[in-house]
Amino acid sequence: MMALMSGHTMEKLQGEELERQQRDFKGYDKGLVRLNPGRWLFPVDYTKFADNLYKFKFRTSDVVVMTWPKAGTTWTQEIVWTMRNNPNLDHPLAKMGVNDRSPFMEFDMLLGSKKLTPLEDNASFMDTFRKQCPGKDPKDGLTLQMSEAAPDPRTIKTHLPFSLHTPDLLDTAKVVYVARSPKDVVVSYYHHSRLILCHDFNGSLDQFTQYFFDDDLVFGPYWLHMKEAWEKRDHPNMHFIFYEDVKTNNMVELQKLNKFLNTNLTEEQLSGGRSGTGSSASARSSRPRLTNGLTSTPKTSVPLSDTRAEGKLQLARLGDIRVYVIILTRFCCRYQFQHHPEPGQKNVQDHLNHLQLPCFLQQLLILGFSFVSRDFVSQCESDLNNAHVFNGKYRMALMSGQVVETLQGEELERQQRDFEGYDKGLVRLNPGRWLFPVDYTKFADNLYKFKFRTSDVVVMTWPKAGTTWMQEIIWTMRNNPNLDHPLAKMGVNARAPFLDCDMLMENKKLSSINDSFFLEAFNKQCPGKDPKDGLLLQMSEATPDPRTIKTHLPFSLLTPDLLDTAKVVYVARSPKDVVVSYYHHSRLILCHDFNGSLDQFTQYFVDDDLLYGPYWLHMKEAWEKRDHPNMHFVFYEDVKTNNMVELQKLNKFLNTNLTEEQLSEVAKYTSFSVMKARAEEDDKPELDPFFNQDVVKADGGHFRKGEVGDGKKRLSPEQQAKIDQWTHQHTKDFGASFRYSC
Questions:
Q1: Does the pTM of the predicted model rise above 0.70?
Q2: Is residue 540 part of a domain?
Q3: What's the domain range around 717?
Q4: Which of 473, 542, 576, 733 is least surrounded by CB atoms within 10 angstroms?
């Protein structure tokens, strides 16, 4: 137990009580604490800030908006701030989100969950912090210090009860306490707790209501919170108000607030009219009324039928705040929204002002979407089936540091014309210009934070650089050196899973595939897991040790500690052979379904416009790590021409300690001709829908030639010259030891 300056003792939740909370509230992964007396419940990070919150220096000019969660806090913040700072509705800061103008002082304690993207990673938010709090340490509380640094007159939001604030609060500042019916509160808090990832509640309304009754919700107990305020209602600096009164007798309550706050607004100002400030009549007519705009549930200032140019939003006529949140989160997928500044727009805020978004949406965009539950978005997507939300480009930031941008216009049209499998769209990641199907964004962060083990071996290649061959070699050396393992008859991707395959699986070309084959294997390997979270990703996680895992992703899109944890075998192959093999593969596999010529495909290759490209950057990232003790960089051509020598090197790298006799048998077993014969013998008709059967009949299936130098036979002199020039341009700094340097 730990004693706080408030006089409370704090104890961590443990055992069954903690397990129940963490089962139902996924956002409480770091734990919870109880404060006594009172049984107040908070995330464990409250302890970092408790004493500084208690001794927070309020000023005589402050107004504190105090409520239990979902009792009308944001609404009252906006009312109070507007009455005090923007009575004529012309304040330049009014376009900022309300929590920028009226800070949430204890918000820091809610940000520690692993479900959230840290605010420290949000460049826009951190710029604001550094400007407002120069020289301050973010670890001492971002929103706490921003509350301290907010200029007078401050309007400060808190959900903490009086007993956890300084005892002289009411002798110093004014407090507006808002109470709301418990029936309305519990329903609103239930919705909020499902929506916001720092809670991430996954149970039913009935379960949530029981938590409410039991005073087992964060910021509870509800009635004690209200009682502490009710007992102070006669203090001259206290204004106790009921949410229902503000809704039903709005002007009456605004007049009471006007008197309490000493704002001296006129009747015209309170009702939304304007005093003579020289503003034009058209400006007046475009401004919201206090009673009908700011103090009622906001809709949107975006014309609902407006079709805007690239980079702007078109909002469907969908109604309430919830829908706007869904619209944006559906595309931003919990991550920070990044923006295209247009000419004359100096920063993100200028861009947001240009979009004319409502204040609460501007706040969401600035803070990012790290607080919005993907489960909530998924449950509500049916509301948006016919809503075309974005006319322009959108960007989102990934945990890897890359920013994702959708392909649009002619570039997308060209790709979808030539690659019919890309019907759902494509995305670019920068830096790097990496190209992926749009579904990569569903899995990007989980791929980046994939937990590799010290016993793992990762086979990393660009497509068609000898991946399947190397998977079979490594799995056999590690698991089947005597060629008698019962699982060896399974396909190699069942034994050495393709980590990033899920993003390739969802397109209309594959919609007719019978899922039972995959789901049966998935359900056995991952009981109770949701296939929507990635079949192959979760099967990779569930594969027993020692795992051999395949990926075509570059190092920069995987966890930075990969090489410090697992071993990586990177296979490089001549670009001329790769482009010919990838051309055949892209015609064969329906998730690509390329319908153009080899000449067109070669142009895509050198333009870095093929999936998993750019080719040379992918290889360069690996080449620069070739001296790491957990890295084995191998050339496809060496494995073909000096097979036993390369197997001996692998034997040493993998610590498999195979004998010469065993290595010789592995070499035969994993030769191209034997692997191709096994694949033909073990034909799986359930996989046929993945392949273009016309290409199979004309040019063969997955195992085609596996030769060194096939590219020189198939490519025209002009195509070879183009690749040579491109190779020379990109390999200048690889060094003389690099095989493909020109």
A1: no
A2: yes
A3: 437-730
A4: 733
Whether omega for the bond prior to residue 37 falls within 30 degrees of 0, making it cis, is yes
CATH of the domain at 492: 3.40.50.300
* C-beta separation of 335 from 445 below 8 A: yes
Q: Confirm whether 345 is domain-assigned.
A: no
Distance from the first to the final alpha carbon of the chain? 68
For residues 208-233, b (16+ Cβ closer than 10 Å) or e, as one string?
A: bbebbeebbbbbbbbebbbebbeebe
Residue 428 maps to a domain: no
What is the tens place of the pLDDT at every residue in 133-161? 999 988 888 889 999 999 999 999 999 99
Q: How far apart are CA 132 and CA 99, in angstroms?
A: 14
Q: Which of 294, 329, 347 is the last residue of a domain?
A: 294
Q: Which own/partner pairs from 604-609 qualify as long-range (CB within 8 Å, at least 24 positions apart)?
A: 604/418, 605/575, 605/579, 605/723, 606/722, 606/723, 606/726, 608/433, 608/435, 609/415, 609/435
- Of residues 406 and 461, more confidence is placed in 461
Region label for 303, one of left (φ > 0), alpha (ψ between -120 and 50) or beta (otherwise): beta
In a domain, 473, yes or no: yes
DSSP 689-700: GGB-HHHHHHH-
Phi-psi region of 584 (alpha: psi -120 to 50; beta: other; left: phi over 0): alpha
Measured CA to CA, the distance from residue 732 to residue 99 in angstroms comes to 51
Element spanning 332, H or E: helix 321-332
> Amino acid identity of 604?
Y
Count up the domains in the chain and report the number. 2
User: 446: helix, coil or strand?
Assistant: helix
Q: Is 90 exceeded by the pLDDT of residue 259?
A: yes
Element at 580 (helix H, strand E) = helix 575-588
What is the CB neighbour count within 10 angstroms for residue 493?
Answer: 15
Confidence of residue 693 (pLDDT cuts 50, 70, 90): low
Cα–Cα distance between 705 and 708 in angstroms, integer?
9
CA angle 160, 165, 167 (to 5 degrees): 145
As a whole-number percent, the residues of the chain with pLDDT over 70 amount to 77
357 band by pLDDT with thresholds 50, 70 and 90: very low
C-alpha to C-alpha distance for 668 and 507, rounded to whole angstroms: 38
* DSSP bridge pairs for 551: 460
Strand order, beta sheet including 426-430: 337-338, 395-397, 403-406, 426-430, 434-437
- The DSSP bridge pattern shows strands 567-572 and 631-635 to be parallel
Q: Are 500 and 443 in contact (CB under 8 A)?
A: yes
The CA distance from 383 to 220, in Å, is 33
pLDDT-above-90 percentage for the chain? 61
Is the predicted pLDDT of residue 395 greater than 60, yes or no? no
Q: What pLDDT, on the 0 to 100 scale, is given for residue 679?
A: 75
| Strand spans (E) along 232-349 | 238-242, 337-338
Q: What is the mean pLDDT of residues 596-622?
A: 97
Res. 741: pLDDT tops 80 = no
Reference 368, options 173, 63, 99, 559; nearest CA is 99
**The pair of three-digit structure tokens given for residue 70, joined into one six-digit string:** 């979902």
Please check whether residue 76 is in contact with residue 129, taking contact to mean a CB–CB distance below 8 angstroms: no
Instruction: Express each pLDDT in 638-673 by its tens digit.
Output: 999 999 999 999 999 999 999 999 999 999 999 988
C-alpha dihedral, 247 to 252 to 257 to 259, nearest 10°: 180
In a 3-state reduction of DSSP, which class is residue 156? strand
Angstrom distance (rounded) from CA 89 to CA 97:
15
